[in-house]
Structure formats: structure tokens, C-alpha cells
Specification:
With about 400 residues, the chain is of the alpha+beta class. It has 2 domains: about 250 residues, 2-Layer Sandwich (Aldehyde Oxidoreductase, domain 4); about 100 residues, 2-Layer Sandwich (Aldehyde Oxidoreductase, domain 4), CATH 3.30.365.10. Helices cover about 30% and strands about 20% of the residues. The protein is built from 8 helices and 12 strands. Helix 4 links the parallel strand 5 and strand 6. It is elongated and about 80 Å long.
Length: about 400
């Protein structure tokens, strides 16, 4: 497959960091191209991806081998089976299309895959520092974890407490995590790049191991710390373009079932199967919460949210003009699927998941709309007006 890509310079305002920084935009173009390629080949879209999916030892475009712990194929397999695909003699067969709920509604199903880095990339230095303190007499009575992680809803404090408890062999309830007092907690870097479970989790794990060793040597209380540095990445080589861009990846497959009203252009998401390779699930319930929230956020990016600029001016400056999804817009059902392909460097094999949950929603929705009404939508958000225009209804 030969691909020509073009970068276009505009006079639009500069953009800022958003969940999965730029990756959903690229993935939308790539996965829609996969859908169109499958159609041109007369091949099932799941089967085409299965034939070309990354595997352990695969070499990527930067001429380096992908890091160990490659679960993209398993996310695709589990999501497809959950959504009704069947594998027969090595071929994948799509489920029969269900009728729409009303005479004006058409149903469709779409699939998309993605992968995204965990941690800082392209040679940018990454690290986290953690301190673990153990108190008690004959037995460990409590432990204190100090690590400057910004918990922005992802449940990082809970994950760090679980990691420390597992290493020390004490109940989770005996672990206190302090993250906010910069007078006593060391730096953990930013809560970005889906990195805190991996990077700070390793810092806590190793600090706990060292503190435990001091405890076993008779120190009361027992303190120790760890400066954790993940595997080194490298920037592009100017002559060849080769590099080792990322030290770990999370992998995702999302399958969307939806209805399109051919009279109004309205799109309703019925069901989403969201499968994620998390390496090792430190807290499955928190991961499922991440998946459900990310699915709704990805739906907003695909169908609702539009930042409008005209003549150098911003037209959507307020939330009364820039719409975001609410509970009324959420899919009727989200099916979280947790896949574990352990990363040998991650804490107990874990890697990140936070950003990966939004990655594949837009192309999966666009593919499902094409399956429902036979038109391609190449511009986001996919509003009712754009659907009708693509169907030549307006």
C-alpha cells in the first residue's frame, strides 16, 4: 500500500494538549483508509486487520522492533467475537445486519483499532521518584507511600496503594498514599502520556522492595526511595528516520453499533465493545470506569464537539456554543473488555490505558455509518447536517 501524506500550514490558532494528543486525528484517517481498503478488496474489515496486525517481534516504520507485550490481535479477536463475528476456517464473518428500530432508521456496525505510546517519547527524559515508609513492631502495621502523582480522576492513588500492598504483603487498607504536599513528596512528572501506572507504579514497586529489605534487616521504621527511569527512547536519526520512539504501547479495538435516521441525519450509538490491552490489570474496576468515560469522550469528538474558527475569530468560545456529550448522549450500553499482554518492564506487567479509550471511537463510528447508509464521512464532527449532505438529502 502506497500512502501520500500532506501537512498543511494554516492561520488557525495553536492547539493545546488533549487526551491522546493528536493520535485520534491520525487514527481517524488511518482506520478509515483500512475500511475503504477492505471494501475495495471485498474482504471483511476484521479479517483484513487480523492479517496485518502487529505481533511480538514486528518491526515498525522506524525500523525498530515493537516492545514486548503486543496485545492488539487479542483485543481485535475478543471484541469481534463479543460483537457477533464468527471465525470459520481462518476467515472472519460479519454478523447479519439487524433492522432499525423505526422505519426511517438504518443500523450499522463498525470496527477500528489503535495503539498509543505509554510515557514520554523520542528521547525526552522520563522518570518518577517514590518514597515508601514502613511502621510497626513485630509486624508491619502501616505503610506510607510518597509520590507526587496528580490524580485527575484516573485512580492513580488507588493503583499505587495496591502496588505497594502487593510488594509488602499487607492489606491495601494499611497503605496511605500522600501525593499533594510538595514539602514531603518527590516529583513524579506529569499525569499525561498514560504514564503514571507504569512509571510511578514502578517507582513505588522498587521503593517498596527496598524498604521491605530494610525492614527484614531489623530497621524500625524502615524507609527507602527509588528514582525510576523507564527504558530510554531515541529521537529520529536525521539521515535514516530510524529511532526507538516509545518504550511501551497500549492497544485498543472498539466496535460500534448504531442507528442512523435517514430523515433527520441523527446518529444514535446503541452499543460499544471496547477492548483494551492493559498489560496487567492492577484494578479492573477502575479500568472499566476509564473505558466507559473514554468511550463517551470519544463519541463527543466524533459526533458533537466542534471548535469553529472563521476569519481569525473563534465562534465557539463558551460551553453554550461548544457542545459536549451529556448522559443523554451516552451509548445505551458499553461493554468493557480487558485484555492482558504483560509488559515485562511494567509494574507486574501493567501499562497505561487512560488515553487509549478515546482512540478508535471516531473511525469506528464513521465505519458504522457507512455500513448503515453507504456514505463515507471524512470530516469531524459527524453532525446530522453532514450526514444528510453526504446522503444528498440537502
Amino acid at each position: 500500500v502506497k500512502v501520500d501524506g500532506y501537512a498543511v500550514h494554516t492561520n488557525n490558532i495553536l492547539t493545546g494538549a488533549m487526551r491522546a494528543f493528536g493520535a485520534p486525528q491520525v487514527n481517524f484517517a488511518m482506520e478509515l483508509s483500512m475500511e475503504k481498503l477492505a471494501q475495495a478488496l471485498g474482504m471483511d474489515p476484521v479479517e483484513l486487520r487480523m492479517k496485518n496486525v502487529l505481533r511480538e517481534g514486528s518491526r515498525v516504520g522506524t525500523n525498530t522492533v515493537v516492545p514486548a507485550g503486543v496485545g492488539i490481535g487479542e483485543t481485535l479477536r475478543q471484541a469481534a467475537l463479543a460483537a457477533g463475528w464468527r471465525e470459520v476456517d481462518g476467515h472472519w464473518i460479519k454478523p447479519a445486519k439487524a433492522a432499525g428500530g423505526e422505519s426511517s432508521k438504518r443500523r450499522g456496525i463498525g470496527v477500528a483499532c489503535s495503539w498509543k505510546n505509554v510515557g514520554y517519547s523520542f528521547g525526552f527524559p522520563d522518570h518518577s521518584i517514590a518514597r515508601v515508609e514502613i511502621y510497626g513492631g513485630e509486624e508491619m502495621e502501616r505503610a506510607v507511600v510518597k509520590c507526587g502523582v496528580a490524580d485527575v480522576g484516573q485512580g492513580a492513588q488507588t493503583a499505587l496503594a495496591q502496588i505497594a500492598a502487593e510488594v509488602l504483603g499487607i492489606p491495601y487498607e494499611r497503605v496511605e498514599v500522600i501525593v499533594s504536599d510538595t514539602d514531603v513528596v518527590p516529583d513524579a512528572g506529569s499525569s499525561s502520556a498514560s504514564r503514571q501506572t507504569y512509571v510511578s507504579g514502578n517507582a513505588v514497586r522498587l521503593a517498596a522492595l527496598r524498604a521491605k529489605r530494610r525492614w527484614e534487616e531489623g530497621n524500625r521504621p524502615a524507609f527507602d526511595h527509588c528514582y525510576y527511569y523507564p527504558p530510554q527512547t531515541t529521537d529520529f536519526a536525521p539521515e535514516t528516520g530510524e529511532c526507538y520512539p516509545h518504550f511501551s504501547y497500549g492497544y485498543t479495538t472498539q466496535i460500534v453499533e448504531l442507528e442512523v435516521d435517514v430523515e433527520t441525519g441523527e446518529v444514535e450509538i446503541l452499543k460499544v465493545y471496547s477492548a483494551h490491552d492493559v498489560g496487567r490489570a492492577i484494578n479492573p474496576q477502575m479500568i472499566e470506569g476509564q473505558i466507559e468515560g473514554g468511550v463517551v469522550m470519544g463519541e463527543g469528538y466524533a459526533l458533537i464537539e466542534e471548535f469553529i474558527q472563521q476569519g481569525g475569530f473563534i465562534k465557539t468560545r463558551k460551553l453554550s456554543e461548544y457542545f459536549i456529550p451529556t448522559s443523554l448522549d451516552a451509548p445505551r450500553e458499553v461493554v468493557p473488555i480487558v485484555v492482558e499482554a504483560p509488559d515485562p518492564e511494567g509494574p507486574f506487567g501493567a501499562k497505561g490505558v487512560g488515553e487509549m479509550t478515546v482512540m478508535s471511537m471516531a473511525p469506528a463510528i464513521a465505519a458504522a455509518i457507512h455500513d448503515a447508509v453507504g456514505v463515507w464521512l471524512n470530516e469531524l464532527p459527524i453532525t446530522a447536517e453532514r450526514v444528510l449532505r453526504a446522503m444528498k438529502k440537502i
